[in-house]
Write a structure and sequence with these properties.
single chain; about 375 residues; Rossmann fold; ten-stranded mixed β-sheet; two-stranded antiparallel sheet
Length: about 375
């Protein structure tokens, strides 16, 4: 399949509303190479310089030893006893906190047999901190969604979508991939996509370990039994493999939203050798980068599982997921309802999903292998 590169966007998710992000370093394991260790330190300490120079391909300055103390990006309010279940799944219910954490995945053998060195994974967090209705602090556990951006992208362009999910009560974690994210510029290597499902699984494992700790800002924040994943374009390919390819399946995932994604031919395993978790495929009819036949191939190949196909009439490759246009808002509503149904287990969300997905003249939602009109 041809590469799906498009306009590079630097780590713009780190700077929203003119406010710099606060970086938190998760210590890397022994055996990190000096080059990757330096990159981690540089990413953590000089994020602003990375923001302005990443797409231009300018090198980062020499590494500076990161501070040992983690500074919260958002003041941590005093937790109170509160029932969060009434607001879960409703966009706009929560005020959102943000953090940035860097993980280092140890060297390992990739699914295609490549000997991989340590991989630096810069992750952005959005999570509920207070109820919007009364300002009272909230605490977990909340459902978790991991998000994979497209080729040469980070989370910034998807901010509206990611914020909407977080404001509905989801902890949303964006995984920026070391060889295909917005910071690597023309050095991006799309062939590295085969290694990205393992990156997602590694981040999930680390998150659940932090969640199980008795102390810390992530302690008890997520429900380990309520995990969804989503991705767009090459990120959609990544999460499709994570859910449905024998090479990379992560059985901790309960639901998957593939946004303009496809099967990635170099993946070494077979797709759908087993029953996959519920999957939602979202696709624009005017997408020339990931044509509809690619999403339809995945949707129709999933013969045993619960699957939906959201057909967006006249939509292109990025419009449904970037910004706050009407089509993006429709995608917000349908994806939230899908997550509510299959991550949270809210039976009533299915009717909401069907209603919003069949917007006259804008979209059609079909299921169980039926084709869109």
């Amino acid at each position: 399949m041809a590469g799906r590169g498009y306009t590079c966007s630097p780590y713009s998710e780190l700077f929203m509303g003119g406010e710099p992000f606060v970086w938190a370093a998760v210590p890397w394991v022994a055996g990190d190479s000096g080059r990757n260790g330096a990159r981690a330190a540089a990413v953590m300490v000089v994020g602003l310089l990375a923001f302005v120079s990443a797409c231009a391909g300018a090198p980062l300055p020499h590494a500076v030893k990161p501070a040992k103390r983690q500074v919260p990006a958002t003041p941590t309010p005093t937790a109170v006893s509160r029932d969060n279940t009434a607001e879960l799944g409703i966009p706009g219910s929560y005020q959102i906190g943000r953090r940035q954490v860097t993980f280092t995945e140890p060297g390992h053998i990739g699914p295609a047999g490549e000997n991989l060195g340590p991989r630096i994974l810069v992750t952005g967090f959005r999570y509920p901190v207070a109820a919007r209705s009364d300002g009272q602090a909230v605490h977990g556990p909340f459902p978790l969604v991991l998000f994979a951006p497209g080729f040469r992208q980070c989370g910034g362009p998807y901010s509206g979508l990611l914020q909407a999910w977080a404001s509905a009560g989801y902890v949303v974690v964006t995984v920026n991939f070391p060889r295909t994210d917005c910071s690597v510029g023309t050095a991006a290597d799309e062939a590295d996509l085969v290694n990205q499902p393992a990156d997602m699984s590694y981040v999930l494992t680390r998150l659940l370990a932090l969640n199980a700790q008795p102390q810390g800002w992530f302690s008890g924040l997520v429900n380990r039994d309520q995990i969804g994943v989503s991705g767009q374009s090459d990120g959609g390919d990544t999460v499709a493999a994570l859910a449905a390819n024998a090479c990379c399946t992560d059985h901790r995932v309960r639901a998957v939203a593939v946004l303009s994604g496809a099967e990635w031919p170099p993946m070494p395993g077979r797709y759908f050798p087993h029953r996959a978790p519920p999957m939602l495929f979202v696709q624009g009819t005017a997408d020339t980068i990931n044509p509809p036949r690619m999403s339809l191939q995945l949707y129709q190949a999933d013969t045993a599982g619960i699957r939906y196909y959201l057909d967006l009439f006249g939509a292109n490759h990025t419009g449904p997921y970037w910004g706050t246009n009407p089509v993006e808002q429709l995608v917000v509503r349908v994806t939230v309802a899908f997550l509510d149904r299959y991550v949270l287990g809210q039976a009533r969300a299915l009717a909401v999903m069907a209603g919003d997905g069949n917007a006259g003249g804008a979209a059609a939602l079909v299921s169980d292998g039926r084709l869109p009109p």
